[in-house]
Write a structure and sequence with these properties.
The protein is about 20% helix and about 40% strand. By secondary structure, it is of the alpha/beta class.
């Protein structure tokens, strides 16, 4: 029975239905939409994130073009890595690298058991199911036990970005016990037409495994991006996840983590830089299920013009998760009177003998600091740029890879020094 939330957006639902893939697990994910419906503005989780521009798009599955037909080399970050290329919703095997001691299986080649496993999610919503149901490109990446991957795995996603184009990606990373890996997830769109990117990356860390993950969203200024990453951590394993929303019209990304084994560690950080009328929405959910686990979070938003920033974070501590140590900080900077940031950090603790805290601040640049720098011969504009960069770079410096870190810092410097909110 299709509920009323779906009926209100029947035209959009019908558009999505034509894009649902034939895999049994994807058909099952699609059926779950009927019980949830598309988000509405009165839903608490979407109160500050309007889907009006998204719902007006003439959505259709992007027309596939081979990645060889574009200059993907010039769009790629220039660093030593194992590169997997995805263009317009498809995995380009011909343009991708072979990775030693790592098995890469395209999405369409998954077995029934593998499909069932990747259909699981920690805290799903409507876009989680939509992404799974419509995914045409993606890969299962399996790292052998005790294997330390010697170079980062670079997931390069390039979309044409024409109006209404939908590109949907679904990845899963399986790290065997005592293995180590760094993953760079990069999303680019070429045109200003106003397409949509759905992206979901889940990861499972076996005992003693270690993962460093960085997601870069550099979409065109008319592109919509909806992402949801899951991290499941077993005993003595650690995960470091960073998300950078650098450009796009509407970007919403959630990272959900589940500490299932003792002595696990998770770090989740994000930086959002909306301008003009953009909305960037960053969300986290972290479940401490096992004892003696630690988590750290740092989330920052820099809002300019009439833009809208949103942060929503939850730390949930199970009754058995004693000796939990969890910290979540959210700091927001408003660079204009018309910009806004809505911040909602939350804690739910059902265990004794834990140490959990959250902090949130929102404000403008300190005029005293600007005045002090001006007394040292620095112009007002340059002083503001330097202070803003210092605020943002705290998150950028958490990137493991030095060349990716340099790329993000250059993006920040370029955006702040040019003062060009359109590019």
């Amino acid at each position: 029975m299709v509920g009323s939330p779906v009926k209100n957006d029947m035209g959009l639902i019908e558009s999505f239905e034509t894009m649902v893939q034939s895999g049994n697990w994807q058909q099952q994910q699609w059926k779950k939409i009927a019980g949830i419906g598309l988000p509405r503005s009165k839903d608490e989780a979407w109160k500050y994130t309007s889907l009006s521009t998204f719902k007006q798009l003439p959505l259709h599955c992007v027309t596939y073009q081979p990645a060889e037909n574009i200059s993907y080399e010039s769009l790629s970050l220039n660093f030593d890595c194992y590169r997997l290329v995805f263009f317009d919703g498809r995995f380009s095997v011909r343009c991708s690298d072979w990775i030693p001691k790592v098995t890469v299986t395209p999405l369409h080649g998954l077995t029934g058991v593998e499909s069932y496993e990747i259909s699981k999610s920690i805290r799903p919503d409507a876009f989680t199911y939509l992404t799974d149901a419509t995914a045409t490109g993606g890969a299962l990446i399996e790292v052998e036990s005790r294997n330390v991957v010697d170079k980062p795995i670079y997931l390069l996603h390039i979309n044409s970005g024409m109006e209404g184009d939908l590109c949907s990606y679904r990845h899963h990373i399986e790290l065997g016990p005592l293995s180590q890996c760094e993953v760079i997830e990069h999303h680019i769109s070429l045109e200003q037409g106003g397409g949509v990117t759905f992206s979901r990356l889940s990861s499972y860390l076996g005992k003693g495994a270690h993962l460093h993950h960085t997601k870069l969203i550099e979409e065109s200024h008319q592109q919509h991006h909806f992402g949801h990453n899951d991290i499941v951590v077993q005993r003595d394993a650690s995960a470091h996840s960073n998300c950078f929303m650098l450009s796009g019209l509407l970007c919403r990304h959630q990272t959900s983590s589940h500490l299932q084994g003792e002595n696990g560690f998770v770090e989740m950080n994000s930086l959002s830089m909306p301008v003009n009328q953009q909305t960037f929405d960053s969300r986290t959910y972290l479940r401490h299920q096992a004892p003696h686990c630690q988590s750290e979070q740092l989330h920052k938003t820099i809002a300019r013009d009439t833009s809208n920033g949103v942060f929503d974070g939850m730390i949930y501590v199970d009754p058995n998760a004693i000796k939990t140590d969890g910290q979540m900080d959210s700091h927001n900077l408003l660079l204009s009177e018309c910009a806004q940031v809505n911040c909602k950090p939350q804690l739910e603790i059902y265990a004794d003998d834990v140490k959990c805290s959250h902090g949130a601040t929102t404000g403008q640049l300190d005029p005293k600091q600007v005045d002090y720098m001006r007394t040292r011969g620095i112009t007002k504009d340059k002083a503001q740029q330097m202070l803003t960069f210092a605020f943002a770079s705290e998150v950028a410096f958490k990137i493991c890879n030095p060349l990716v870190k340099e790329h993000v810092c250059k993006k920040l410097e370029s955006s702040l020094s040019q003062g060009d909110h359109n590019g």
